[in-house]
Amino acid sequence: MExxxxxxxxxxxxxxxxxxxxxxxxxxxDGEKIVEATPVVGYLHRGTEKIAESLTYTQIIPYTDRLDxxxxxxxxxALVQAVxxxxxxxxxxxxxxxxxIVMELSRLASHFVWWGTAVLDLGAxxxxxxxxxxxxLILDLLNEISGARMTFNYMRVGGVKWDAPEGWxxxxxxxxxxxxxxxxxxxxxxxxxxxxxxxVKNLAVYDGETAIKYGLSGPNLRGSNVKxxxxxxxxxxxxxxxxxxIPVGENGDVFDRYMVRMKxxxxxxxxxxxxxxxxxxxxIQAKLPRVLRVPEGEVYTRMETSKGELGxxxxxxxxxxxxxxxxxxxxxxxLQIFSDLLVGNTMADLPAILGAIDIVLGEVDA
Amino acid sequence: MADLLTxxxxxxxxxxxxxxAVIMLGIVLFFVTYAIYFERKVIxxxxxxxxxxxxxxxxxxxxxxxxxKLLIKEDIIPEKADKALxxxxxxxxxxxxFAVIAVIPYSEKIQFADVNVGILYYxxxxxxxxxxxxxxxxxxxxxxxxxxxxxSVAQMISYEVPLIMSFLGIVIMTGSLNLIDIVEAQxxxxxxxxxxxxxxxxxxIAGNAELNRTPFDLxxxxxxxxxxxxxxxxxxxxxxxxxxxxxxxxxxxSLMTVLFLGGWxxxxxxxxxxxIIWFILKFMLLVFYLFWVRATFxxxxxxxxxxxxxxxxxxxxxxxxxxxxxLKILNVY
Amino acid sequence: xxxxxxxxxNVWGKGLLQGLxxxxxxxxxxxxxxxxxxxxxxxxxRFRGIQYLDPEKCIVCNQCARICPTNxxxxxxKPNPDPEKKGRVLDTYEINFExxxxxxxxxxxxxxxxxxxxxxxxxxSYSRDNLLKDKKWLENNNTNVRxxxx
Lengths: 366, 333, 150
Prior knowledge:
Chain A is of the alpha+beta class.
């Protein structure tokens, strides 16, 4: 007698604990095995790009805070970078250093959230709390310099809003050895754990060529042994002054992407350490007219966020508002590979794979 | 107390028996209340938090408040659910959980039923719970619930085998299935954790899996199945599933204490401390271990879980049985 | 512990024990929770909380309303009641905290520092109507006002 089995259509999300927001994926499962998966995005769509067309450049900055709300500083920079590029503005040294410091702190904060939640998706609760404890320290630092915990609105075209308050740089310097110690604990708690290894090794493997074909960037790309990091390959800001490495993975599985991010945290600390040592005194804001009129033209600038390549395509018609502004959001593009990775894996792998892609729905849906 | 059962039937005796059961239920409920509190505290401490500390002094009434909230909640049965089975599910899951407690001896005086096949009774009854869980999962008419239910059945059936095999060694050593005899035997020689260390470790792992607790909490894996088999349950029925889980923690930790840690036997000749205190101490240690593991480990996958049971645990448990038998023949024990 | 592929060899359960050791050590670590309503959460000077408004200083230049990215500020002026003085004074001023994102741009453009940020951040309310704060409310919100706008 042959058993007749049926495939089941399972709707995961938009309200599901491990879709990290309002992401939805419709999977066809055969028992526990996933046969087909269709992601559905857009539940958090706010039309940032369209809204931006009716806002002045300064007004758009708070909106960029809300794209990848886990690393707002990086998004802030993406916009001001594009405007500065088009206006050809020379940014004061000190401002650039402050930007690098807050950006790397932001990258760390974003990676902490990823680490906590990705491991939480595998069922371990404690790492999540540890990660948030350390993220809290970064948020406190950023709060002190910018006045907000998540939506910083810190960068301005031509510089930054505030100079570092007294003693702030020392606090950042003290944070580095603390964090190095804690990173060791992270590894001790999770990286060596055999259950964790059994769950993530050889899971959702793709090679570098596939990754490039899908347009992946960031740790998702580097996990597959492609050494590409815009901070090194096309240095922006003052990243060419710092010494750091680009960690890459070998096999391109979930574990490699995990390790790439873990090593990136160490590199970020290294960059912050150098920046805090080198930071000069001086102005923090370039002299600019009160109303920013960007000369007519078109520019595409890109930068490396914690998720991957965040590009901005800015078209200006010489007004104080952009004619067209497009965000190339890394989370959204990295997500394209998700449904293909799911096929053939089990339900239990779904959160693990999604966690390794590291999406933020604010950015996916923009 | 056990002699109550052997006395001739009379209404008074029936009253006594019922009263003893109610008292035991009270103790178990008390344990469950504070086990949940203790669990949340321990996990809180590990996670550099305080844990519950708002309701009552030091948060001691937190679980009471939680249970009260569950009791006053609206009782919802999904429209498309199989209503009769939906109602039976939690009961069927809970009944055996409470029934298995009867055979566990807590101290020289506090023991309920002197059953000659105590361990077998435990193993046999505890597997009935699976039916309740599967019924709950199936009757909910929810995809997550049915997946949770199926996982649960697969897991419990696989892990029952190594669980039972791991205490076969003890049965060989003592020649008895009676839990009281087993404790007496440990009083005479040594605690079975030492000669039966392999059995103890397999029991610890299999027991953890049997309890559906992290890292083996697949049936209720919140990250993929939201809540697993009881996703549709609310109010009192949900409380029953929850209770079942914790009563099994009680039962499993008690059983482990009796089988491997010498029950109420005092170590190092510290006889002046009453046996029941020793029992509670050992029992708490095991319960703490469960909470500790929960705060540390991620969850395993279904195929890994099965593979681990059939490829690792069962062979190891079988080897332990063989080893014990050989040593027994050679008169080492 | 479960699957060993590609010839990885490590001691079984070493990582598990390491993790257990770490969590056990953490049992007695000092707690980091802030008991929020009982304990005050100390915010830095620059924190951007609900605005404080000084109507005396306001010159009704409308810059704050214009810069606001979410159009949450509405204001109107009237001629100065004192005929000796020129200019306009503030008549009504409202911030809609349903849509205000506390981005700090209004205080940044204000030429007279009439509008400033405070450290107050508690806005929870039972009704949306309560979130529309008028001139009077903003004027009375005068505790923990930030010193500098820039």
